[in-house]
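This protein record is not my work; I was only asked to verify it. Would you go through it and say whether the fold makes sense for this chain? Here is the record exactly as it was handed to me.
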Amino acid sequence: MAGFVDTSEFRNGLKILWEDKPYVIEYFQHVKPGKGSSFTRTKIRSLLDGRVLEPTLKSGDKVGTPDIESKDMQFLYVQGDEYHFMEKKTFEQTFLTKEGLGEAANFLKENLDVEILFWNGKAINVTLPNSVDLKVTKCDPGVRGDTVSGALKPATLETGYTVNVPLFINEGDVLKIDTREGGKYLTRVATGG
């Protein structure tokens, strides 16, 4: 059951209701000015459409907490604009649209375990693992002797996402990609054969 939370209980990652919609707190700061009453600056992101707001609340204000359920699910397949997921225990299936997934759609591959958030019985958001291993499907070959430090080139991954990688990466390599930082290359996991 949904309840209320005071501004003194704010923390990053806390899910709140703002204007009757679920949001997650990405950043907050308690401010105590020399004159006047204290307040809390926040940066919140909508769990429905990814929109970011920066409301300021008076110290002691209360906001609602959404009745959100989280389920561990597995990504199955894409059909048109719908990304389908299945709960492993009950085999119950649900889907999210590409628009609803936002950036997460760039990192989904078959059988990837994710966490799906449900609000009022409807799937609204996905939480990915911090990193995923994806295969390079298209990339210019590395040139022997090209050792410019810090130089990058684009590589297309199996999901269709393009990421900048070091010059030594080749087609067929498997890369570890950070899903939190907008898809940054972390390291090469395996070389292509």
Q: What stands out?
A: The first strand starts at residue 4 and ends at 6. The longest helix spans residues 98-101. The helical segments are 98-101.
